Amino acid sequence: MSKIFTQNLLPAGMAGKEVMEVLSFYQKKRFIKAIGLFFMLTAFMVPLNASSQQSYQANASASQVADAIDEFILTPDLAQQVGSVWNKTPIRLDRSFDFEFKVYLGSKDSNGADGIAFVLQPLGTTVTGGSGGALGYGYIKPSMAVEYDTYLNLPYDPAKDHLSIHKNGDTGTPLITAVVANSTGNIEDSKWHTTRIVWNARTQNLTVYFDGVQKLSYTDNIVTNIFSDSPEVFWGFTGGTGGSSNLQMFSVVKLDFASGMTLNAVSTNQTCPDFSDGSITLAPTGGTAPYEYSIDGGMTYQPDNVFRGVSEGKYTAIVRDYNRFTSSTSVNVLQHNDLPIITSLTGGGTDPVSLSSASVSFSAQVTDDNLATASWDWGDGSTSPGTIEGTAITGSHTYLEPGVNRVTLTVTDACGEADVEVFEYVVVYDPNGGFVTGGGWIDSPAGAYTADPSAFGKANFGFVSKYQKGATIPSGQTQFQFHAAGFNFHSTSYEWLVVSGHKAQYKGEGNVNGNSGYAFMLSAVDGAYNSSNPVDRFRIKVWLKSNGQVVYDNQMGSSEDAEATTALDKGSIVIHDSKFTSTSTSSLTAAPAQNSDFLEEQFFSYPTVFSDINTVAFALDKIERFTLEVYDLKGALVQKVTSGLAEAGKLYHFEVNGERLPEGIYIARLATDSQLKSLKIIRKNR
User: How far, in Å, CA of 492 to CA of 86, rounded?
Assistant: First the structure.
């Protein structure tokens, strides 16, 4: 069936000669059965859905598909139809574009007609060309069109559905040879087809793709040669039917513009997790003001170029100018909050401090740029805020009680992130305070002896630790025997002693099974010293000085300043307060043991070299009478210290007064009913 075009309204100013020229032109194409006049339609406009009403103008038989965005019917499947749809925003041909559409050319092949066209024209958004073979754009001048022709018009058209490029409403003479649309030659196949139209303003080339295949390429200075050096045009689609018909439609897939704009995006990073306080600032160059801005890929726009309250993430930023041209870029908003890290914590010293001058100062360095608070925990139950100066933190404290204190610094930044550093330990001792003695045995748990973790059983101990008058280093003796493991520890020196209420703790060095190179810390609790828990408790930790490897610890895994928790099975621990003044006949121990095997027989003194007071300690393995005396090297008795009845397994401590003794070597002799023991002590003036 041949194509027919219908009469429409005659544009003002069109002369009769021009009408006859149009008539003659279409007669030459031999598709006219019912002769009629063809005119530009300027008055018949179709309402659009609200979603596209602001962007597109539909005319004559064209309409928007209900509830669809940017999808339009150009002609219904009726004869003698013509329609056009124009985007209301003009584009500039001195800027490149890349448009992609879907087109539907109907379902009737042999008796379907006539086709559609993509058209560029400067006349406005209400123009419509002729129906039938005019494809809705015939006689629109000036114009440029890409024709999707579905009807054979001999001798001008290929024998199959085809594509071609035309200008100025001339549908009979293509600018370049028409090409068949696809391999089947049929695009009236009830299918949507993809077409892409690319204009390169720099090379002045128009390229047309159909279903992903390049079909046409045309190069010309169309701004000058067609549009008389006026680059601004409207774009849209037209369609027409004649005696034959088809449902003909198009939809917009994407519209990419090269607007000559560039977009620079600057982000301010989110400072804290979940704060959403980042920002993005967009700065376009080129284009035509006013601008609109988006950071959600074009879903929404705003007139302000600054986006505030932005969360961490990657954003597609877009600027859209007055001509609806766009430029985009990607921008990242990061979470900027360096975690605070305490890189150094110094102060306090490594030596014990006397209670009489127990003021300490600490300083720390932190890597962070938004520190908010710093807090010192001094380990004695008191805290104080740290002084923050940039990345430096300082603090000072005066201790009022003896103790082994763990100093903890906690820093927190503005985002609530924190770091903690611990200094171990500040040891505060009172040389005029109390001292501690003890003896008995405990059940050593499995795992306490690292060389044989399975070993467990009875372990005996005996100790005394005290500050002699005027001394800053304590003296005494400590012995510990764990028989099941063959472990025997004997102290050789002390470093410090802290007595605080019902607790005592001291540190020193010693030998293990006669071998030197070991350090130890002993913690003792006197349950009878104003304590709600009347049980005496004991802990000893021994380690290699060379590498810190723990050899024995009956409270394995606990911090060194932790209170002792292992209860005595037999024996006692006594905290002697500073009010106690011993004499040569005073026993300085606690209650006697109930079983003689808990503490092996011992006899020792401390310090070995003394000036005024020397303490002699002993324990017997059975109840016996005893006499403790001091002789010079000539065998003369110089001091009778004490005598009495000693209970089995009880550790006794007695003081030898050396104030009236001349310098020299003396022998302390312990005589019992069954034996005689002696040891050497040295008196030396200060």
Answer: 102
Quote the percentage of the chain above a pLDDT of 90: 58
Of 2.60.40.10, 1.10.10.10, 1.10.3720.10, 3.40.50.2300, the CATH number of 341-429 is 2.60.40.10
Given pLDDT bands bounded at 50, 70 and 90, which one contains residue 424?
confident
Q: What are the Cα distances from residue 7, in Å, to 4, 11, 36, 74, 617?
A: 10, 12, 5, 18, 132
Are 360 and 389 within 8 A, CB to CB?
no
User: In Å, what is the CA distance from 373 to each residue of 208, 347, 389, 686?
Assistant: 66, 20, 11, 51
What is the rounded average pLDDT of the residues 525-540?
85
Q: Is residue 642 within a helix (H) or strand (E), and if so which, with residue range? A: strand 637-646
- For 651-666, b/e burial (b = at least 16 CB within 10 A) is bbbbbbebeebeeeeb
**What are the residues whose beta carbons fall under 8 Å from the beta carbon of 15, sequence distance 6 or more?**
none
Measured CA to CA, the distance from residue 303 to residue 292 in angstroms comes to 5
pLDDT by residue (tens digit) across 629-680? 999 988 899 999 999 999 887 788 888 988 889 999 999 999 999 998 988 9
Amino acid at position 36, single letter: G
Rounded distance between C-alpha atoms, residue 372 and residue 414, angstroms = 5
Pairing assessment for the beta strands 676-683 and 609-610 based on DSSP bridges? parallel
d(CA 497, CA 659): 25
The residue type found at 209 is Y
Q: What is the mean pLDDT of the chain?
A: 85
Q: For the segment 46-81, what is each residue's pLDDT rounded down to a tens digit?
A: 444 444 456 899 999 999 999 888 999 999 999 999
Q: How many CB atoms lie within 10 A of CB 309?
A: 10
Indicate the domain borders of the chain. 16-53+63-257, 262-333, 341-429, 581-686
- Fold of the 16-53+63-257 domain: Jelly Rolls (2.60.120)
Among 599, 594, 598, 527, which residue's Cα sits nearest to residue 565? Answer: 527
DSSP one-letter string for 122-182: SS-SS----SGGGTTTTT-SS-EEEEEE-S--TTTS-SS-EEEEEETT--SS-SS--EESS
Burial label, 480 (beta-carbon count in 10 A; 0-12, 13-18, 19+): buried
Alpha carbon dihedral 252, 258, 260, 264, in 10-degree steps, equals 90
Dist. CA 210–CA 388, nearest whole Å: 69
Least confident of 195-209, 265-279, 392-406, 499-513: 265-279
